[in-house]
Each structure stands twice: as C-alpha cells, then as structure tokens.
Design a protein that fits this description.
By secondary structure, the protein is mostly beta strands. The protein has a 5-stranded antiparallel β-sheet, with no helix packed on it. The termini are far apart.
C-alpha cells in the first residue's frame, strides 16, 4: 500500500528540526519564498539553524518536524 502524506506547512518564525541532520540543532524559518503551496511541490524555506547557519530547504524533499510536535 502506497500512502502519501502531504508535507506540513511552515510559516516565518516557526521552529523546527530535521531528523536526518540532528547536529544542525533547532532551525527557525526566516523566509518562505515558495512560488506555490502545493502538497506535491511543497515550500522553499530559508532556515537559520542553530549549529549550521542559513540554508534553503525544500519541504517536498525533507522530512522537517515542528519543534513543538
């Protein structure tokens, strides 16, 4: 059975973690430059990470988790 779960929508100011990159620490969304907010396209986010700095992340390709979850 193939089930699809839509990526979560993040907003500027949201705190999150990337389970595949725990050494990066906590990230804060500083910009959402998404052209479309489609579940299949996801979002293009600029995230400031505690131990990594600023990166651009595509939510369709990353399994980001909200910090509060």
């Amino acid at each position: 059975m193939n089930s699809h779960v839509a990526p979560r929508h993040f907003s500027v100011g949201d705190r999150l973690v990337d389970p595949e990159r725990p050494k990066w620490g906590t990230g804060v969304v500083v910009r959402d430059s998404s052209a479309a907010r489609s579940p299949t396209v996801g979002q293009r986010l600029d995230v400031e990470w505690e131990h990594r700095g600023l990166t651009t992340v595509l939510t369709a390709t990353r399994n980001l988790k909200p910090l509060d979850a």
